[in-house]
Amino acid sequence: MTITADHGRTHGYDDLPGLMGLMTGDEKHGPAATSTLDVLWVLYDRVLRVTPRRRDDPARDRFLLSKGHGPMAYYAVLAAKGFVPVDWLPGFGAYDSPLGHHPDRVLVPGAEIASGSLGHGLPIAVGTALGLRAQGLRDPAVWVLIGDAELDEGSNHEAIAFAGPAGLERLHTIVVDNSSASHARPGGIAARFEAAGWSAVTVDGRDHEALYDAFTAPHPGRPHVVVARVEPKTA
C-alpha cells in the first residue's frame, strides 16, 4: 500500500532508505532511527487511521513518538505519507529547519507531541486515552512508541500500573526492544505489562506481517502492548 506524497510521486517502503539518506549532519542517532523503521511503516501504512488531510480531525487515531531522539525514520515515513515535504529532509537538524533532532509538534505536521525526556511518552498517552474517553470519543486509538531503555524510568511503570485497571482498551504501546535497557530482565518486558492487566504480544520487529497481526490483535477491555524485538544496539 502506498500513498501519493508531494510532487505527485508515490513513496513506498523501498523508498525509505533513500529518504533517510537525504538527512545528513551530526547527531543522527542512526541505530535509534533504524530500530523503529519497520514498526513505523506498518503503523502508518496499514493501521493508523490518520492522513495529512485528517491530522486535525478529532476522530483520528493518535500516534505519539516517545522514542524521539532518533527521528530520521519517523520523518522519512511522514514524508513518504505526505505529512511533510520531502524537500525538508536535507535540512534535518539545521537551525532553521522544522525537522529537529527531537520532533516538535508545533513545527512538524502530524506530530502529536514534542519528544524530549525519556519516560514521558507513555504517561502522556495514558492521559490522552483518558481525555478522549472523557469526551465520549471512544473510537480513536492512541498509539505510543517507546524504547526498552525508557522502561528504566519510573514514570512508565506508574503509567503501566494505572492503565490496566483503568481498562484503557484504546491505548496501544509499542516497545522497540534493542537490548539497551540498563535494568531489564531478559524476556521480562511483556510480563511486566501482563502483571498490570495488559494484553501483550512479543514479535520480530522486522517482520511486517507479524507486526500487523500483533497491532490488530483483539484485546477487549484491556490496553495492549507489542514488544518488537530488533537486533541489539551496538553503537
UniProtKB/TrEMBL annotation:
Residues 29-217 form the Transketolase N-terminal domain. SUPFAM superfamilies: Thiamin diphosphate-binding fold (THDP-binding). GO terms for molecular function: magnesium ion binding. InterPro entries: THDP-binding, Transketolase_N. It comes from the Bacteria. Its cofactor is thiamine diphosphate. Keywords: Thiamine pyrophosphate. Signal peptide: none annotated. Belongs to the transketolase family. This is Transketolase. The lineage of its organism: Bacteria, Bacillati, Actinomycetota, Actinomycetes, Kitasatosporales.
